[in-house]
């Protein structure tokens, strides 16, 4: 998938080329993106008709724009054009303005699904209508590219932002691509971070105490929050659910995936630097006898930065004392590890200790529950026996002691 | 009219019906449940809350935007079995809600109009709860809150109360949120006493208000969910922060937080231990061991959570070591080589040229 390649005919609605001298400064907030994604998921899953169109509100001051909150729009068709329901839209915008007063937010963009090539004819009527309704000609258009979602790499988001340009009155409305950056506030970052790490997928809620395996035929029931009782009939359902993970596993996988992506990114950047250096013409460094001076186009500051980066790398290695062994070679000493090694060891041991304690608590809890179940069993048995034989108290006393013994054992093991 | 990329056909593959099941909405099922009203029979019927990504971020941002003033909003969604599912949240134009009983009434008009417009746009969920913030004083229900929620639970069931503390959220770096349901006026909860112990973090100034009403409500377990599309987008977003991902040392930065958690678990364990000892003398009645088991189960869950967080932190440290420090000997050699060949090569070139 080539993206905006030259092989597809240029989109007549898109103006290519340099942006004007004072470019707009646009900041996109993750919440707007999440809202759009939430709307797409809902719209698709509920098989709702019609295109996915909505509005984005944000702050505008001079040439700085922010895209902060988004909401979906009610649409109507008008002679084959897709437009927003203007009465609905005006009222809804007012409702949002009412609760976003400090700082005051207003409509800054519309969003829609769109192809990578850019805005299409179908996007025009809606945008023009909104510009008329609000009297604001600089409403931007944000296109969400569904086809790019599965090939996201290098942190590129599957969206493109366009500003509308009307060269003269009466001519076609055209678009120019805008660059934007992602910006977040503190609260937003924590919220988004929590959600990203939480990992849980939105599988349907399972009924907590399914009596029989009859429910197992109802698929779509994942782990959810139902604490399944251990019935045999459940095991084949669990087998089917092997693909759905518990929340802890999900978290673990999410963090590992994040690390993998980060390492991949690091690798890419390093390769980039390496290939750049390879393209440098040969010089003093590669061949000590060469006397050609470096070409004028050498970017010295870049090379200096690379050099400083490289000189910092040895600092990452933990200090190990190297001693000269009797046979004249340098070697690693077997002496007590350096400070950082010791600290690392301690951390590792602390983590293992907490795991151990957690496992221990779990064992205690399970022994405890087994103990109480046993009590109930013995009590029931004794009750039955008592009722059968009609005798009373003597048993009761003996039972009391037995129970205490069991409790004592359990709490004893918990303490030690 | 072939409208490329405009219609939903292309969006189908962005959604996974199994893993995104909560995003669906079955109006008939909702009506059926509203008629059956299974919560009438059991005041403790609802136990869990699942909050969508959008709803959570909106609520946290709203709470933060209020600064020192309490803010308030509405949550929409539906219920399923014993779970509240919050799909979205909306702000209400009222502030400073803790001292006024009728704050919700002022926003009534706004609420009704907003919900109506949402329904017209295709968002059919009903209001399923309200949220408000306690800036700096923790997640619990004050006397006024309890009153409000009791009224809602009589008139608008099923309804949920959610509280967010934006200050603690920022300082802990984790969302501080709680979800509650009140008991009916004449109901005495079985384990009256344990709910008060769970929330040890109430400042002295509010402790009286907290203590007086702590037994009139119980808290539900909160978890979050996001769609598969959300997950992909968040991954892309987080690729922008990859440096921080690799360089972070969670074991180190979270040391204080983890210590506090461990202290908390220790305290709870001691409590459970004491209550066990008390009960062990008598022939145990039916419910008592169950209560003990529940408490112990909670302690175990907390302990395992700490353990898994620590494990993730350790993995981060190990990854760092492998990536950056494992090649130490070669790095040292390379560094030596550069040094011996004359480090200041660029200056030399300039001098030569």
Word description of this protein:
The complex is a heterodimer of chains A (416) and B (353). By secondary structure, chain A is of the alpha/beta class. Chain A contains 9 helices and 15 strands. Chain A has helices at residues 30-45, 86-99, 123-134, 186-198, 232-240, 247-279, 300-316, 339-389, 393-415; strands at residues 14-15, 25-28, 53-58, 60-61, 64-67, 69-72, 75-78, 81-84, 106-113, 140-144, 159-165, 174-178, 180-182, 322-324, 330-332. Chain A has a 7-stranded mixed beta sheet, sandwiched between helices. A 4-stranded mixed beta sheet of chain A has the order 4-5-2-13. Chain A has a two-stranded antiparallel ribbon with strand order 7-8. In chain A, α8 (339-389) runs antiparallel to α9. Chain A starts with 13 loop residues before the first strand and ends with a helix. Chain B has 353 residues and is α/β, with parallel strands linked by helices. Chain B contains 15 helices and 7 strands. In chain B, a hairpin with a 2-residue loop joins β2 and β3 (83-95). In chain B, 38% of the residues are buried. At the A-B interface, α1, α2, α4, α6 and α7 of A face β1, α2, β3, α4 and α6 of B.
Question: Key terms for this structure?
Answer:
heterodimer; A: 416 residues; alpha/beta; seven-stranded mixed sheet; four-stranded mixed sheet; 9 helices; 15 strands; B: 353 residues; seven-stranded mixed β-barrel; 15 helices; globular; disordered N terminus
In short:
Chain A is an alpha/beta fold and 416 residues long.
Write the layout of secondary structure elements.
The complex is a heterodimer of chains A (about 425) and B (about 350).
Chain A: E1 14-15, E2 25-28, H1 30-45, E3 53-58, E4 60-61, E5 64-67, E6 69-72, E7 75-78, E8 81-84, H2 86-99, E9 106-113, H3 123-134, E10 140-144, E11 159-165, E12 174-178, E13 180-182, H4 186-198, H5 232-240, H6 247-279, H7 300-316, E14 322-324, E15 330-332, H8 339-389, H9 393-415
Parallel strand pairs in A: 1-12, 2-5, 2-13, 9-10
Antiparallel strand pairs in A: 3-6, 3-9, 4-5, 7-8, 10-11, 11-12, 14-15
Chain B: H1 27-36, E1 48-52, H2 53-65, E2 71-80, E3 83-95, H3 103-106, H4 108-120, E4 126-133, H5 143-155, E5 160-164, H6 166-172, E6 177-182, H7 194-198, H8 204-213, E7 217-225, H9 228-238, H10 242-247, H11 250-253, H12 255-280, H13 287-325, H14 328-340, H15 345-352
Parallel strand pairs in B: 1-3, 1-7, 4-5
Antiparallel strand pairs in B: 2-3, 2-4, 5-6, 6-7
Helix pairs in contact in B: 12-13
């Amino acid at each position: 998938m080539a993206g905006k390649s030259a092989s597809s005919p240029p989109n007549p609605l898109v103006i290519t080329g340099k942006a004007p001298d004072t470019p707009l400064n646009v900041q996109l907030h993750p919440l707007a993106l999440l809202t759009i994604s939430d709307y797409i998921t809902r719209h698709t899953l509920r098989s709702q008709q019609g295109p996915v169109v909505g509005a984005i509100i944000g702050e505008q001051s001079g040439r700085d724009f922010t895209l902060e909150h988004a909401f979906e729009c009610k649409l109507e068709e008008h002679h084959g054009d897709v437009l927003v329901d203007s009465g609905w839209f005006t009222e809804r915008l007012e409702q949002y303005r009412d609760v976003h007063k400090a700082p005051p937010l207003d409509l800054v963009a519309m969003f829609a699904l769109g192809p990578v090539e850019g805005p299409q004819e179908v996007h025009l009527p809606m945008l023009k209508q909104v510009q008329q309704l609000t009297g604001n000609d600089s409403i931007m258009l944000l296109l969400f590219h569904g086809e790019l979602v599965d090939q996201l790499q290098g942190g590129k988001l599957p969206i493109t932002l366009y500003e509308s340009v009307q060269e003269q009155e009466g001519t076609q409305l055209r678009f120019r691509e805008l660059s934007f950056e992602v910006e977040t506030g503190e609260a937003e970052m924590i919220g988004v971070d929590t959600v990203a790490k939480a990992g849980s997928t939105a599988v349907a809620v399972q009924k907590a105490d399914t009596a029989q395996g009859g429910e197992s035929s109802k698929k779509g029931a994942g782990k959810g929050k139902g604490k399944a009782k251990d019935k045999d009939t459940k095991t084949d359902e669990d087998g089917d659910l092997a693909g759905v993970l518990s929340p802890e596993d999900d978290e673990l996988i999410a963090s590992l995936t994040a690390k993998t992506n980060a390492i991949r990114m690091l690798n890419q950047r390093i390769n980039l630097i390496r290939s750049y250096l390879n393209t440098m013409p040969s010089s003093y460094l590669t061949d000590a006898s060469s006397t050609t001076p470096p070409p004028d186009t050498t970017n010295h500051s870049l090379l200096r930065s690379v050099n400083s980066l490289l000189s910092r790398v040895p600092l990452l290695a933990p200090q190990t004392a190297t001693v000269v062994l009797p046979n004249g070679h340098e070697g690693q000493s077997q002496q007590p590890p350096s400070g950082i090694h010791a600290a690392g060891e301690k951390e590792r041991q602390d983590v293992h200790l907490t795991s151990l304690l957690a496992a221990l608590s779990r064992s205690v809890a399970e022994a405890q529950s087994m103990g109480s179940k046993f009590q109930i069993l013995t009590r029931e048995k004794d009750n039955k026996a008592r009722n059968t034989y009609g005798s009373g108290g003597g048993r009761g006393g003996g039972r009391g002691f037995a129970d205490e013994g069991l409790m004592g054992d359990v709490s004893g093991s918990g303490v030690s | 009219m072939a409208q490329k990329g405009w219609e939903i056909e292309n969006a189908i593959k962005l959604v996974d019906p199994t893993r995104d099941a909560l995003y669906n909405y079955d109006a008939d099922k909702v009506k059926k449940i509203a008629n059956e009203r299974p919560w009438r029979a059991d005041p403790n019927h609802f136990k869990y809350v699942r909050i969508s990504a959008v709803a959570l971020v909106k609520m946290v941002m709203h709470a933060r935007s209020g600064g020192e003033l309490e803010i308030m909003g509405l949550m929409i969604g539906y219920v399923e079995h014993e779970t509240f599912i919050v799909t979205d949240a909306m702000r209400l134009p009222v502030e400073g809600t803790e001292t006024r009983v009728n704050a919700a009434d002022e926003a009534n008009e706004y609420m009704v109009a907003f919900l109506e417009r949402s329904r017209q746009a295709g968002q059919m969920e009903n209001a399923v709860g309200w949220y408000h913030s306690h800036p700096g004083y923790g997640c619990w229900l004050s006397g006024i809150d309890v009153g409000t929620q009791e009224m809602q639970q009589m008139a608008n069931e099923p309804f949920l109360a959610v509280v967010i503390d934006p200050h603690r959220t920022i300082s802990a770096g984790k969302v501080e949120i709680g979800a509650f349901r009140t008991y009916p006026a004449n109901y005495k909860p079985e384990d009256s006493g344990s709910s008060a112990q769970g929330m040890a973090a109430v400042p002295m100034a509010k402790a009286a208000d907290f203590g007086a009403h702590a037994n009139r409500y119980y808290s539900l377990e909160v978890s979050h969910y996001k769609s598969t599309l959300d997950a992909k987008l968040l991954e892309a977003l987080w690729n922008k922060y990859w440096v921080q991902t690799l360089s972070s040392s969670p074991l180190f930065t979270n040391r204080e937080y983890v210590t506090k958690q461990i202290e908390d678990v220790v305290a709870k364990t001691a409590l459970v231990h004491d209550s066990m000892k008390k009960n062990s003398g008598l022939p145990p009645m039916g419910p008592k061991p169950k209560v003990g088991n529940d408490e112990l189960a909670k302690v175990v869950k907390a302990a395992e959570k700490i353990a898994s967080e620590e494990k993730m932190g350790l993995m981060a440290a190990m990854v760092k070591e492998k990536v950056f420090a494992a090649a130490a000997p070669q790095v040292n050699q390379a560094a030596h080589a550069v040094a011996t060949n004359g480090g200041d090569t660029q200056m030399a070139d300039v001098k030569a040229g």
